[in-house]
Amino acid sequence: MLPENTDKFISYFDNITDHRIERHKLYPIIEIVFLVVSGNICGARSWRDYVNFGKAKLYLLKQYLPFSNGIPSKNTLYRVYSAIKPELLQSCFTSWVKSIYVCVNDVIPIDGKCIRGSHNRKNDKAANHIVSAYSSTHSLVLGQIKVEEKSNEITAIPQLLDAIDIEGSTITIDAMGTQKAIAKKIIEKKADYILALKDNHKCLNENVKLFLENEFNKAGNGCLKSNLQVDKGHGRLEERTCYVSDNISWLEKKDAWAGLQSLIMIKSKRTIGDQESTESRFYLSSKPADPLYLNHAIRSHWSIENQLHWILDVTMGEDGSRVRKDYAPQNMSLMKHIALNLLQNAKKEMKGISINGLKKLAGWCDKTLGIIMSKNF
Question: Which of 16-20, 274-278, 347-351, 373-377 comes out lowest in average pLDDT?
């Protein structure tokens, strides 16, 4: 038997408004959501996969929900996910995440990802671009929002920040999101930021670079505090030194950046065999000039690439998906995020297994699938 708390996840998705006419409500929305999330956990990638999975595992799915009319057809799944307003699913998702996630001293990277397979040439529709927030500490997707066509991440990020709990955390964003309004929004929500500088703020980037490199070249590195971190493995050696200064008095219009406290330079040296490369990157931050913490937080930003985007593409086949009609790409992206959150949480207690391995085991072993789906966070 499954644990008594098996309805915990289901309860957050059981109030989605169903606008279908009565004769098309043979399969409740919650059953359709639950079927697709479970299928994603076990490796399903297409509408037909979800149907075949549901028929094979119907006896198990019925331990959670009635499925009185069995498993819907692939056309039914396609129509439902194309029609559900993404805002409804996203609201359920963020409510569920807030119930299982406590934001305390976390580093939360925010970054965008293009779902390449959602490009519809026939209708000249651009591929969906989804911006996500990710807990690097707990390996959880905290929220997502679609970038509207003819727009960009600058307008999407504030909406995402409004939807999630970030108080007490540090938000890391690449250069696209280095905007005064975004910095202000983060501070207003009682969080901190580390924002990358590049040529979208060319003058500011050059000034920060000149100041930090001049300090670096002084005896004793001037007023800079520093921290060195070294990673070694797979024939690669990487040394990252974080140099940071809290001297911002010289910076013009510094007050336009809400809460600004420190300027950061990361000097990286990577050695692979006899090949060596170096790189310098620059950041603004509302955190105090603590090089140890800032080095760690900037490194943590890459968790959204390695633990989320890479897994979505390689392990869950998101880029290869040809789901592209109406709201379906955005909704199916959210279904994959839900499945990945459940897999990541179960993986913490199953040492030595990858997400891909856990997916296979869930497909092979009913007990493993039941544990993943019914686990009380």
Answer: 373-377
pLDDT tens, position by position, 111-139 = 998 876 555 666 666 667 889 999 999 99
Three-state SS annotation for the chain: CCCCCCHHHHHCCCCCCCCCCHHHCCCCHHHHHHHHHHHHHCCCCCHHHHHHHHHHCHHHHCCCCCCCCCCCCHHHHHHHHHHCCHHHHHHHHHHHHHHHCCCCCCEEEEEEEEEHHHCECCCCECCEEEEEEEECCCCEEEEEEECCCCCCHHHHHHHHHHHCCCCCCEEEECHHHCCHHHHHHHHHCCCEEEEEECHHHHHHHHHHHHHHHHHHHCHHHCCCEEEEEEEEECCEEEEEEEEEECCCCCCCCHHHCCCCCEEEEEEEEEEECCEEEEEEEEEEECCCCCHHHHHHHHHHCCHHHHHHHHHHHHCCCCCCCCCCCCCHHHHHHHHHHHHHHHHHHHHCCCCCCCHHHHHHHHHHCHHHHHHHHHCCC
Q: What value does the mean pLDDT take over residues 251-270?
A: 94
Q: Enumerate domains of the chain plus CATH numbers.
A: 7-99+324-374 (no CATH), 192-290 (2.20.130.10)
Mean pLDDT of 293-306: 95
pLDDT at 152: 81
